[in-house]
Amino acid sequence: MWTLVPVTFALRLLSTFVQPLGSLGSSLGPLFLWLWAAFWRAGGDRSRQQLQGKTEAGEPPRAQEDSHLPTTPTSVNYHFTRQCNYKCGFCFHTAKTSFVLPLEEAKRGLWLLKEAGMEKINFSGGEPFIHDRGEYLGKLVRFCKEELQLPSVSIVSNGSLIRERWFKSYGEYLDILAISCDSFDEQVNVLIGRGQGKKNHVENLQKLRTWCRDYKVAFKINSVINRFNVEEDMTEHIKALNPVRWKVFQCLLIEGENVGEDALREAEQFVISDEEFEEFLDRHKDVSCLVPESNRQMRDSYLILDEYMRFLNCRNGRKDPSKSILDVGVEKAIKFSGFDEKMFLKRGGKYVWSKADLKLDW
Questions:
Q1: Catalytic residue at 91?
Q2: pLDDT value at position 35?
Q3: Which one of 3.40.50.300, 3.40.50.720, 3.20.20.70, 3.50.50.60 gives the CATH number of domain 75-223+301-348?
Q4: Model pLDDT, residue 182
């Protein structure tokens, strides 16, 4: 029963091409439909078996469905793992599960996104380098650049698990590496939760900057502005590192992730006011690569896929998942993403994101 609607739609679509082709179209038409239906059914069956009912999580109420939502996932953030070796107190994608899709299923989902119009993929977590010591991530990065030929492939990481050998194997396929760094005072990083034993987060940042230059990967810094760093002046440090972009986020609360009864974090102590965030931005107004994002700009302007490849809708201050694109396809799932394309464009979500176009002086 579930294949009737797609097949009917395909028949109508096919008829517009068959009529001008005459007898040739008539003979090829049934073969096309048979192949199409077989592919759709096989893919859906495999993904349902793999997810073992996980994708049956409740969708947002249909009243939230917005007819103006775009069906083109131009830029997608794929949080393929929730596991992390850091314990940042404000994290809003916490380690509730250790599930990671099998590599071939993840590739199938990325292929579906490319077919739907994806131009940029950003891999995140959790910590994306924690699974299989970065090999899983590297294979996805290479697949997206070599086989899907995406204009932009990027990663957001805390940087602690990246080794130079990863750059040697996969650096040529990566456009942008964004490293999370919230302070240039190591004690503040420890207070926030960006600390791991004797490793110095700031010193590691310097090393990663060098590797990005050596292996021709555009370098970016992400900072979450919160109660512990809101008074800091990072101007000289950022200018010295010279990233292509310095993304500055206002600390955000998400129900069930970093606030609420079911949350694994208690981020209320990290929250700052809009006025405090603006004061931080004003203090750094001379940093040319600064890209600010307030809570209002951030909440609905990202297309986020979770580890099951479900779009996450944050419109109600929590993450409500759609069905998986592996089960229902991109066009149907994206309708429940809560994505605000106007805000995406307003915050500068679309920019020069291919390292070939950045024309950097390596």
A1: yes
A2: 47
A3: 3.20.20.70
A4: 96
